[in-house]
Amino acid sequence: AQSVAQPEDQVNVAEGNPLTVKCTYSVSGNPYLFWYVQYPNRGLQFLLKYITGDNLVKGSYGFEAEFNKSQTSFHLKKPSALVSDSALYFCAVRDVTSNTGGFKTIFGAGTRLFVKA
Amino acid sequence: GAVVSQHPSWVICKSGTSVKIECRSLDFQATTMFWYRQFPKQSLMLMATSNEGSKATYEQGVEKDKFLINHASLTLSTLTVTSAHPEDSSFYICSAGGLNTEAFFGQGTRLTVV
User: Fold this and answer.
1) In angstroms, how far apart are the furthest CA atoms of chain A?
2) Chain A residues 7-36 within an 8 A CB cutoff of chain B
């Protein structure tokens, strides 16, 4: 079964500094990997995805992530953090559940990012 | 990106009553939608996969008679929490999206059962 792990419950970073939110995955077959962000009392917003192609994926709001097959990682990064980036971040993997196209998304536990001014 | 609208955003109901939550795909057709439940400071727990024109597929441990899912059209899935109790209070989120695309999420519904 597919799974995804976010080892950090919380990440603290000062505004203007680079940030990294870690994610590792376990899949059978090719991984479909995603990052989402959630603000309080809201649904999730898509940031970026890796399905195929370049290992470095660029997404919304200046975020990027690097797919590393050997380390089975898909860490989220941003060169310069903003206070407004403070939110809950979820890494996710797509799990294909049937030969007829059935699937579901498996989410990590989430990492809360605090950016201090 | 595609838009998924979820309604209501919040609801308070009395114990024993039923509550219906709607999830609509506004600018695309969704043969499959997903319903999640999220407890405070926790991840999303998949409750069920809603399939247009057929029965929903429930995850292990989710009571299908308590959480009724109907996906009668390609743009609407509903989740009805029947005979709600305070332990059903939670944040419920729906999503839609294809195998090779990102998921598009509704805004979420905060259910409080008193």
Assistant:
1) 49
2) 32, 34, 36
Any alpha helices (H) in A35-75, and if so which ranges?
none
Per-residue pLDDT of chain A (117 residues), as tens digits, is 788 999 999 999 999 999 999 999 998 888 899 999 999 888 899 999 999 889 999 999 999 999 999 999 999 999 999 999 999 999 999 887 776 667 888 999 999 999 999
Which of B78, B98, B99, B110 lies closest to B2, judged by CA? B98
Q: Taking phi first (over 0 means left), then psi (-120 to 50 degrees means alpha), and beta for anything else, what does residue B41 get?
A: left
- The DSSP bridge partners found for residue A103 are A96
Helical H segments across B1-114, by residue range = none
Query: In chain A, where do the E strands start and end?
Result: 3-5, 10-14, 19-21, 24-26, 33-38, 44-50, 56-58, 64-68, 73-78, 87-96, 103-107, 111-116
Answer yes or no: do A44 and B44 touch at CB < 8 A.
yes
8 Å CB contact of A110 and B34: no
